[in-house]
Structure formats: structure tokens, C-alpha cells
Design brief:
Helix content: 25-40%
CATH topology: Rossmann fold
Strand content: 25-35%
Number of strands: 5
Oligomer: single chain
Strand order of the largest sheet: 2-1-3
Order of helices and strands: EHEHEEEH
CATH class: Alpha Beta
Number of domains: 1
Largest sheet: 3 strands, parallel
Radius of gyration: 13 Å
Length: about 100
């Protein structure tokens, strides 16, 4: 089955905490429709884990909350996850949503 990767940092930041709670709905819906879900919650919302899950053959969709700016998206404790010009970001996002 196709895989949905969901990044849900939760480290005390109110925006991440609320966003992580709302993403529980994305997880429920994805599972209802038969998708495999990689739920990267809290300390699991790291670049290493996101890249690992997004490299799996069945990965089709990423959803997540975090902070950042026009060129960078962050995860747990504002660790950079994706950024403009990063080769791994390019590779896993090619032909994905």
C-alpha cells in the first residue's frame, strides 16, 4: 500500500503542539483510506527519520508542521528537515506531493 509520511514535532512550542494535534486527523483519514502511515511524532520528527521514511519505495505523500522560512522547513526543536538546494530534498520530492 502507498505510504503517507506525517511529521509532528511537539517540544513545547504552541504552534507545533497544535499542529501536531490537528495532523492526527490526517493520520486517521489516511488510514481510513488504506494508506500506510509513518507517524513521526515528537523526537521522531527528525531529518534522519523523515528522509528514511520518504526514501521508502511506497512513499507518495508528506504532510507536516514545523517552522522555517522561504527556503527551509524544520522539525523537532527547529531541526532543518528540507531546504532549498539540498540534494536529498530534491531526490525525495521528485514527482511527489
Amino acid at each position: 500500500m502507498a505510504r503517507v509520511v506525517v511529521q509532528r514535532p511537539d517540544w513545547g512550542d504552541p504552534a507545533c503542539r497544535w499542529g501536531s494535534r490537528w495532523l492526527e486527523e490526517v493520520i486517521k483519514e489516511a488510514r481510513t483510506h488504506g494508506f500506510t502511515v509513518s507517524d513521526l511524532y515528537g523526537n521522531k520528527a527528525s531529518r534522519r527519520n523523515v528522509i528514511k521514511e520518504c526514501r521508502k519505495d511506497d512513499f507518495i505523500y508528506f504532510s507536516g508542521v514545523g517552522h522555517g522560512n522561504a527556503t527551509t522547513f524544520t522539525g523537532q526543536r527547529e531541526e532543518p528537515i528540507f531546504w532549498f538546494g539540498d540534494q536529498e530534498t530534491k531526490e525525495i520530492s521528485r514527482n511527489k506531493h
